[in-house]
Amino acid sequence: MSARRWFVGVVSVAIYVIGSWGTGQAGKESAGSVPLETVVDYIHSVLEADRTFYTVHVVERMQRRGVIGSSEKWRSESALPIPAQFFQESSSLAALTGSNVRYRLISLNPINKQNGSRTEFEQKALEAVTAHPEQPYKGLVKEGDARYFQAVYADHAVSQNCVTCHNADPRSAKHDYKLNDVLGGVLISIRVPE
Ligand code: HEC
Fold it and tell me: What is the pTM assigned to this prediction?
């Protein structure tokens, strides 16, 4: 083998080894070193940003301009989905992708009884984020054989629209909400592999 070919051979092997070591390390770094506690914060920030944008710049804006209102019967009526439905529908679509993440809105004073707390964790979490909205409530929850990492974040009335609609609904147990009050919580649940 000529010195030149030998040199090219060694360099190629070195590039291959360094390359695969590099991607291996990068893969490990991105998958292994971000704790679920942080991952769930990332998911929450994206969900909140989307829903706030939808409420303020779509629902509220269209209503103010007299273009179109929002209604729970948006499928049959000419209306936009209310923000809670936007959230539910997007969670169902996310579930279809096969991801292990689920999310829903819950409350101590729900309009829809189905959105009340279903577990001891959810009840404790709602009480905690109502008392200390700046602090999300997180923990590992077992359901049968499955394990979930769950987090509940305070859900604030970010626009007057949230307040008006929740106060006006006869199904709501509370009718004196004000802007920025905690209306409930955003529950995010990530299934933890066995
Ligand atoms: C047009 C009316 C309307 C607006 C605007 C609205 N909501 Fe709701 N919200 C509802 C209804 C109705 C439900 C129950 C939906 C269901 O059947 O699950 C609900 C559900 C919820 C729930 C789950 C607990 C419950 O009460 O059933 C939370 C938390 C919530 N909304 C927070 C908000 C926040 C925060 C905003 C503003 C960003 C907002 N909502 C805007 C009508 C409204």
Answer: 0.84
Verify whether ligand 1 is closer than 6 Å to residue 159 (CB atom).
yes
CATH number of 35-192: 3.30.450
Q: How many CA atoms lie within 13 A of 86 on its CB side?
A: 18
Query: Which one, of 125, 141, 155, lies nearest residue 189 by Cα?
Result: 141
> Separation of 69 CA from ligand 1 center, angstroms?
15
The whole-angstrom separation of Cα 137 and Cα 151 is: 6
Q: Is 174 helix (H, G, I), strand (E, B) or coil?
A: coil
Show me where the domains of the chain are located. Answer: 35-192
Q: SS3 of 99, please?
A: coil
Nearest to 82 by CA among 60, 104, 103, 107: 60
pLDDT tens-place string over residues 137-177: 999 999 999 999 999 999 999 989 899 999 999 999 899 99
